[in-house]
Amino acid sequence: xxxxxxxxxxxxxxxxxxxxxxxxxFFACINGNFTFAFLNTPINPAHAGDFLGGNHNLTxxxxxxxxxxxxxxxxFSRVRTEDEYVSFLRLRSLQIGVIANYTIFVVLTLLVxxxxxxxxxxxxxxTTLVLFIIVFYFNLHIRPLLTKTTTA
Amino acid sequence: MKNQxxxxxxxxxxxxxDLAAAISVSRQTINTIEAGKFVPSxxxxxxxxxxxxxxxxxxxxxxxxx
Lengths: 152, 66
Fold this sequence. Notes:
Chain A is 63% helix and 4% strand. Chain A is mainly alpha-helical.
């Protein structure tokens, strides 16, 4: 079955390799206020209002875009044999990922208030992809190992 | 939906891997079809029937709930 929306197979490894440094950069940004000096950029004075201040650094943007791109590469690259069962698994895993994501989101909406809710909104952005990756690769690689079946 | 893939494989002395290679799918796909966890498309069902030299009706059979 042809699925033209998928990336070539090598992107999965590239995504895994890229995800680690971008995750480290992301947590360094939000926890330690780490920035790369060369990513300092002047901003248009018209937009230099309450949000951005006078100077702006693009390190956190780089980290977020890098994490999302890496997760996308892991999630939507071809597997060795891309057949209709894999397409079925992709669809089901995406459905489970979306349902789980919104369940978590609704629960946190009811439980978290004030400034903390901004964190909920922020961390909710990549969780659909993360949940999809977990469910898809669990069903594809780990579940067959857990259910012993005869092959002959 | 019931299927006779395991019986036909035994009759043709084929492993799941052999059948998977013959119709260009993964062995896991054959495994899930045999176990009734995954219902194949018409194209795949026809390919399986062609490998065994029989008709789709001989391999796949509807159950009462279907």
